[in-house]
Tektin (Thinocorus orbignyianus), 401 residues
Amino acid sequence: MARLLQAPLKFHPSEWDVANKMQSASTESQKSRSERVTAESRRLLDEIEKTTQKTQSDVNKKIEQRQEEIKFWKQELDNKLEQIFHETELLLTFKTRLEKSLESCKEPLDVAQKCLLNRQRRAGIDLVHDEVEQELMKEVEVLQGVIALLERTLEQTNEQIRLNRSAKYNLEMDLKDKFTALMIDDYCASLTNNTPDIRHADHTVQIEGNFVSPEDWTDFSNVNVEKAEKQRNNSLALRTLIDGILSQTASDMHQQCEAVNVAFRNRVKEVRDAKRQLEGLLVMVMDETASQEKNIEALKKAIADKEGHVKVAQTRLEARNHRPNVELCYDTVQYRLTSEVQQITKNIERQDTLAQAETELKGLSRRQLSLEEEIRVKENTLYIDEVLCMQMRESVHINNF
């Protein structure tokens, strides 16, 4: 208890003085350090403020630059989209021209084939492989070749339209993304430190795997533009080709159609001339037949006229053969009667011209039948070529679509 009540340790005045000095020195040192920290903090804050302001200003400039880049590529894509759209519309009109031209080939081909079929109905010697048939077969070949060419060109056109639309789709998707990116960057450019809806989002600083490099970004749009330009150029070249094909095929078809028509006109003239010649021969044969019939009648009459003389002479001889006994004399009368009968008989027998005339009459009759049949053949040919074929071909019109 006594120890607990022991007086506290007393310090020496010098110690007290030292302690006070130490407190003063320590406080001054602490103050100095604090002032340095405060000054450093102010400097640091000022530096951070300047850096932050500079960084934010730089970011703002980068956003502006990015906006300009997006606007540039957006304009490029817009221009190319308009071009490819316009080119596709033009190519669609050329496709329509091809389809109309292809459709217009069906009637001439059908007419040419019907003409060939009709001309198989020609008869006799007129069923000939003439110039008309050659030109018709050539026309069928030309038309079939034109149809095949137009079908191939139409397929090529459809494929080019598909490629144009594919390029157009890529441009539209790229433009859509550019529009969205520009809206986002416009929003970012509008943000300030005092914007109400700014917030912390620490996870956004992480770079995910779907980010692309600026070079890839530029290349992507550049490739879309180049592809669209390539397809536009291909489409232009195809339109030029289609123009040439339509012009050339129309010229070929028109030329061959005219060649067939000329061949038909020439053939009709030839057949008509031949028919006219046959009709002239028929008239001549009929005249000759009439003349020969008169000749035969004259020959028959001449023969008939001699029958009386023969009968008289033969009757006289028959009567004088009944003279009795010595009266049955070969006298002058008997001699002359016998000579008369022989002479008349001989003259009648010499008139074999009648048989020849009858033979010639039969020949003329056969010739008449042959000529009449040949004229009917020519009439049939004229009907087929002039009425069936040429009138049918009047409906054929070769248009340049």
